Amino acid sequence: MSKINLCPSMMCADFTKLDLEIQDLEQAGVDLLHMDIMDGNFVPNFALGLEDYISVNRLTHLPLDAHLMIENPIRHVKLFAEAGAQIIYIHPEADRFPLTTLEKIKDYGCKAGIAINPETSIEMVSELLPHIDGVIIMTVNPGFAGQRFIESMDKKIKQVCALRKENEFTFEIGLDGNISPQRIKKYKNIGINNFVLGTSAIFGKEQSYAEIVTELRNL
User: Fold this and answer.
1) What is the pTM of this model?
2) Which of 20, 32, 86, 195 has its CA 20 to 30 Å from the CA of residue 5?
């Protein structure tokens, strides 16, 4: 069983009290803050932008990722690298030359990753796997919180875990989309490292973040 990282999705946080939200998440012991960057083009929604990213980074000592749900991401990777991203994820479908973009991310001193949409087959991204530090498997369609988990993604999750083991790749695997405590318990046992936490696991609950994180650690 791999060590798991709990990564709250900040698009689900209450930005009217952002400093308190981050303080509570830090004290709860989460591992990383997940930052969804949306351009209203690649996905039909606008979410966190560069100024939001800079604000969150100034308020925390936790590492941040940058999940770029944007067209032609190579135009913006430098901005998010300079804003403090530890790892930058791109969607290969949004980039004409994704391998070039991944290498550029590394040139800026960040780890490089890909996010795989539900409709994207592993075969379509297999050539990128030797070049990445992380992969996020989307278990909902990207763009909105509160969607139902797509059960057919179970096969893809197991396929990526098997490919990593067979090829001795070292990239981390994360899941993003309706990640409930039950799914964390299930998938941590097959090699998933990172779990993006939204309204299904941590936000909008009656329990404190500290209580929730403790329960998730003990699953």
Assistant:
1) 0.95
2) 20
